[in-house]
């Protein structure tokens, strides 16, 4: 599901011979399937590390836990492919969760769903407006809004966290996070639906191709008539929408929300997107890789918890995974061109012989 979309200027000659597909290289193969292979290997080894890992209850727990992270990561994949990122998703998740529970208290399930989606989209539009209308750099804009969103969530919960009453345990709202369909948790089903929709947008729509083209070369995209304002506004709004959907799967599982919810969540999201093969330089990414990386991190966290590893050490592992992902991203970029790995080995061998 790698995206290497190229837009041609309007009126350009569409005839001529069709270009052959690029030859597979180590970088391209790793970009799409590398993390999937690592995930399969970890799943194969997991029974040796944690004997109870492959039980139905534990697998359902892993899939349920991975949903909210995976849904936001789908939107973040678009952002990073576009050459930007959103550091405010942790604050968005906290604020949207508070708004969702407030909506449920005021009007039940339908109002809760509407509040989640509307608040998430609103947060995304604010970020998009700061970046496009006020020309604030995305790093500064989203980092600042991270604190703003969390601050607003703290204000709304200054008398205590928003919680779901225990007498609502059988409500349709709570079942979003607890129900299984044919043994598969509903949050994971929602995650699958989000990735299917994201794939369609990315591969089958002009907007999706423009997102990738702008991340690959902003100058060329502008020459082809791509509106930077419209594309960036779409990307940040999409991230906000994904946060709104993710909050529904998150808050119906934990039953509570306040300003401190999921502190450091943005680190986890960016980690899985980069680990999944999306380049921080923009223009290249894979939803398959992001999806596999989400499951990889979820499985890794479950194994660490089952082995009694403390939360502090889990953060160390997550930070190490992020650094590894960035190193892999650099190596993938270095060896992306056909024959680049072979040329690097030959150059190194020549240097060694020359120094002897």
Automatic annotation (TrEMBL):
<feature type="transmembrane region" description="Helical">
    <location>
        <begin position="231"/>
        <end position="252"/>
    </location>
</feature>
<protein>
    <submittedName>
        <fullName>Ribose transport system permease protein</fullName>
    </submittedName>
</protein>
<feature type="transmembrane region" description="Helical">
    <location>
        <begin position="66"/>
        <end position="85"/>
    </location>
</feature>
<feature type="transmembrane region" description="Helical">
    <location>
        <begin position="287"/>
        <end position="306"/>
    </location>
</feature>
<dbReference type="GO" id="GO:0005886">
    <property type="term" value="C:plasma membrane"/>
</dbReference>
<dbReference type="GO" id="GO:0022857">
    <property type="term" value="F:transmembrane transporter activity"/>
</dbReference>
<feature type="transmembrane region" description="Helical">
    <location>
        <begin position="105"/>
        <end position="126"/>
    </location>
</feature>
<feature type="transmembrane region" description="Helical">
    <location>
        <begin position="138"/>
        <end position="156"/>
    </location>
</feature>
<dbReference type="InterPro" id="IPR001851">
    <property type="entry name" value="ABC_transp_permease"/>
</dbReference>
<feature type="transmembrane region" description="Helical">
    <location>
        <begin position="33"/>
        <end position="54"/>
    </location>
</feature>
<feature type="region of interest" description="Disordered">
    <location>
        <begin position="1"/>
        <end position="23"/>
    </location>
</feature>
<keyword id="KW-1133">Transmembrane helix</keyword>
<feature type="transmembrane region" description="Helical">
    <location>
        <begin position="176"/>
        <end position="202"/>
    </location>
</feature>
<dbReference type="Pfam" id="PF02653">
    <property type="entry name" value="BPD_transp_2"/>
</dbReference>
<keyword id="KW-0472">Membrane</keyword>
<keyword id="KW-0812">Transmembrane</keyword>
<keyword id="KW-1003">Cell membrane</keyword>
């Amino acid at each position: 599901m790698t995206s290497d979309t190229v837009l041609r200027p309007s009126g350009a000659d569409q005839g001529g011979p069709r270009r052959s597909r690029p030859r597979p290289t180590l970088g391209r193969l790793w970009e799409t399937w590398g993390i999937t292979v690592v995930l399969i290997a970890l799943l194969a080894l997991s029974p040796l590390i944690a004997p109870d890992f492959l039980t139905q209850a534990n697998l359902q727990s892993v899939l349920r836990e991975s949903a909210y992270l995976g849904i936001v990561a789908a939107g973040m994949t678009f952002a990073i492919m576009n050459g930007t990122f959103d550091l405010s998703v942790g604050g968005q998740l906290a604020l949207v969760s508070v708004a969702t529970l407030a909506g449920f208290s005021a009007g039940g399930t339908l109002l809760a769903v509407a509040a989640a989606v509307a608040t998430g989209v609103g947060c995304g539009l604010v970020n998009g407006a700061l970046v496009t209308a006020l020309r604030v750099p995305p790093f500064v804009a989203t980092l600042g809004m991270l604190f703003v969103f969390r601050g607003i969530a703290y204000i709304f919960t200054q008398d205590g966290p928003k919680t779901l009453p225990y007498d609502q345990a059988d409500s349709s709202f709570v079942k979003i996070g607890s129900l299984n369909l044919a043994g598969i948790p509903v949050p994971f089903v929602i995650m699958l639906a989000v990735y299917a929709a994201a794939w369609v947008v990315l591969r089958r729509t002009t907007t999706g191709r423009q997102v990738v083209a702008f991340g690959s070369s902003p100058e060329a995209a502008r020459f082809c008539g791509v509106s930077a304002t419209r594309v960036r506004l779409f990307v940040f709004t999409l991230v906000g929408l994904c946060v709104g959907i993710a909050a529904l799967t998150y808050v119906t599982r934990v039953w509570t929300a306040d300003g401190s919810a999921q502190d450091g969540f943005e680190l986890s999201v960016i980690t899985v997107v980069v680990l999944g093969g999306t380049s921080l330089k923009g223009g290249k990414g894979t939803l398959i890789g992001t999806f596999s990386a989400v499951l990889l991190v979820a499985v890794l966290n479950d194994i660490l918890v089952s082995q009694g590893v403390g939360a502090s050490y889990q953060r160390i592992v997550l930070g190490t995974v992020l650094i590894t992902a960035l190193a892999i991203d650099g190596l993938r970029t270095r060896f992306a061109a056909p024959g680049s790995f072979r040329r690097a080995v030959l150059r190194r061998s020549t240097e060694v012989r020359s120094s002897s």
